[in-house]
UniProtKB/TrEMBL annotation, chains A, B:
SUPFAM superfamilies: PLP-dependent transferases (SSF53383). Coiled coil: none annotated. It comes from Anaerococcus nagyae. Residues 50-398 form the Aminotransferase class I/classII large domain. InterPro entries: Aminotransferase_I/II_large, Asp_trans, PyrdxlP-dep_Trfase, PyrdxlP-dep_Trfase_major, PyrdxlP-dep_Trfase_small. Belongs to the class-I pyridoxal-phosphate-dependent aminotransferase family. It holds the Pfam family Aminotran_1_2. This is Aminotransferase class I/II-fold pyridoxal phosphate-dependent enzyme. Its cofactor is pyridoxal 5'-phosphate.
């Protein structure tokens, strides 16, 4: 590479945030034409039917009542103990794996994904991931010089594509000795798909069969949307990560961003699951080192909010009510969208929960452009469109499938 | 290296926080013997004379009055524009360098140091740094596989050791083509030393003479304590970073942690200064990519606090008053310490401002241990002791030099 003041590995074109761009265009359209006229499916945050960001009262009342000294002070580098203990319990519910479990506080779910890619891979090793994925995974692999390999997410019947996953895993382990398998489930971003429990058994069988001597596999569970993925049973699958062979290590990226409507507070954790106590501890040591080297410690107020809510029965109830209400809001919006889509034969990937529904189509960028003419602003990715049930009112969810179908037909006829 | 589930580069022993340990011991001693009896010189935060963390009212009233939606929402990946613009103005005051300036929001000052080491060095390149330094620099260099080389900070007359700096720079540039020169000034942690303006001229002359074709130098100014380093004139030196040759790039690590008593909010910025617009932009692009890959974005509330205060004349005045009062508090404590030290011939490094004063001594760990018997808890580093004027009342600052002197004599007689 040419001589340059930027080090070779650190040269990147300006990261253009496609979502941000469409979102800005949408804001301008709303100003011009009025909110009623515009469908804003660009956002990745919970928005009420009047277009306002939902910020749970329980969460922000807790913050506003917090002693300012608790906000001002540093948290522990690895995260405060009370926070991590409560977060682990909250994440797993009654389905805690039987294994050694350690956790490190991270900047949202991002930090936990980052730590897994950093700690369990050397440069040139592979992270494998379904081809409907959150783009930041790719950015992280670029940044740290890890290879990012995608496989076809679903088969023709819209089941998790075990065959393609297996091929991808075999490819990675043939080339190298380490691999991170990224799963964004339940309530996948961008599709709303959840891998079902019986499929997890099959996936784990494959992984176990590949975890031969000298090969190391990290199963990375990004569960950013898990609290919006069902009434509790969506956490059952965590039990399956008990007693896995020692050269498989599981990490869970848990985020307060969605579950506490605390996107801007940057709080989360990387939960480490291993059948070997020493390995769990050493992964913890590695990630604590990474915390120190990258951000010192995470937002203290974020950690305190979780602890304060969990320790106050009344506040906890009020938080759980807000969460449940909003989960049902999403469910209602999604149901309407899915029903309408079915009526007019608009194909979308199976939705089980979370913030988004994905519509596969050809020329998604063109379709997204066409939709602007119909006053709908929507994010296009490689394989289709990401419809944001988190951000679009029920009323607009009902008319959206028809608009999308028309635009797809107009572009691809 | 042996086979292991942790990737080769990511294996670290548990990061033991020496400061945290002594601090915990001190807390226990306070519980047993009472606060009056104990001198707690372990903390790195502003503590009032009653032992309470100082958290500016202006800052936390601003937070408590903030619309919850502004706390809940995501900030921009590179940081919000208003925040970055105001922060740059605030950092430089009237002494903004004549150059292209860009800024990226970071998790405290840590994030800005991290970005500089990441973006301007390849693996194996050197960061050079005085031998009285903040230990996190070393942790970062370990984490990212950069070499960390220290040089004797001060000469025999307690001036910045230009000769040793030059040797170190020459060594690094003989071995490799890139170097980061870390300067923690003004109000150095752990010494309170500030490099004076005339010495900056000499340093820059050396750096310019070494910035030959094909060599790239990043001057990293960690100014975490700058707002406690003088009445404003301590910012004059920033002007010197105007019109430097293109293969020198300057970055400033600015932190809200100390200047806003907002340690736990993790807000800061990396300010990039270059005479070449394209290089400034490309450094920005690289660091924005790093933000996305490591933490997505920083605490929104932190950014909003700075913006809200700067945009509210009354609040701004009240913030500036609090800052000034606390700067004077530090000054008073330090003056008393320095005066007493002089009276009893306790040698310490020259103090110009900031949170700490350093006392060089042999066997610092033993001395720190001995001091516990005298009810003083203090952090030992490689070359001496770090006395925390930020955390010790004026009254106790007056009796501390004698205790320290006695302990040094007892250990090293």
């Amino acid at each position: 590479m040419g001589k340059d003041i930027i080090a070779d590995h650190a040269r990147w074109p300006r990261l253009e945030d496609e979502i941000f761009k469409v979102s800005e265009e949408c804001k301008r359209a709303i100003k011009e034409k009025g909110r009623d006229k515009i469908i804003n499916s660009t956002l990745g945050t919970l928005i009420d039917d009047d277009g306002n960001l939902i910020a749970f009262n329980s969460v922000y009342d807790t913050l506003k009542n917090m002693d300012k000294k608790s906000i001002a002070s540093y948290g522990a580098i690895e995260g405060d103990e009370a926070y991590l203990d409560l977060l682990v319990d909250k994440c797993f519910g009654p389905y805690k794996p039987k294994a050694y479990i350690k956790a490190v506080a991270t900047a949202g779910g991002t930090g936990a994904v980052r730590h897994s890619l950093w700690t369990f891979l050397n440069q040139g090793d592979y992270a494998i991931c379904p081809n409907w994925y959150w783009p930041a995974y790719l950015t992280m692999c670029e940044e740290f010089d890890r290879e990012f390999k995608t496989y076809e997410f679903l088969d023709e019947d819209f089941n998790f594509n075990l065959e393609e996953f297996t091929k991808s895993l075999d490819f990675a382990l043939e080339k190298r000795d380490r691999v991170v398998c990224i799963f964004n489930s339940p309530a996948n971003n961008p599709t709303g798909f959840s891998i079902e429990d019986s499929m997890w058994d099959k996936i784990l069988d494959v992984i176990k069969s590949r975890a031969v001597d000298g090969k190391y596999i990290n199963i990375l569970l990004d569960v950013a949307y898990i609290e919006f993925a069902g009434d509790g049973s969506q956490k059952k699958f965590f039990q399956k990560f008990s007693s896995l062979p020692e050269n498989i290590i599981t990490t869970v990226a848990y985020s307060m961003s969605k579950s506490y409507t605390a996107y801007g507070l940057r709080a989360g954790a990387c939960i480490i699951i291993s059948s070997n106590e020493d390995m769990a501890n050493r992964a913890f040591d590695s990630m604590k080192h990474s915390n120190r080297a990258n951000l010192s410690n995470i937002t203290h107020a974020g950690m305190n909010i979780l602890v304060d809510i969990e320790n106050d029965e009344e506040m906890k109830k009020s938080y759980e009510n807000e969460l449940e209400l909003n989960r049902l809001l999403l469910e209602k919006r999604a149901k309407v969208f899915v029903k309408k889509a079915k009526e007019i034969d608009l194909i979308h990937l199976p939705y089980f929960g979370g913030f988004f529904i994905s519509i596969p189509c050809n020329n998604p960028k063109e379709v997204s452009k066409k939709l602007k003419e119909k006053n709908m602003y929507i994010v296009a990715n490689k394989n289709g469109l990401r419809f944001a049930v988190c951000a679009v009112s029920e009323e607009k969810c009902e008319i959206s499938p028809k608009l999308i179908k028309e635009a797809i037909d107009e572009v691809n006829r």
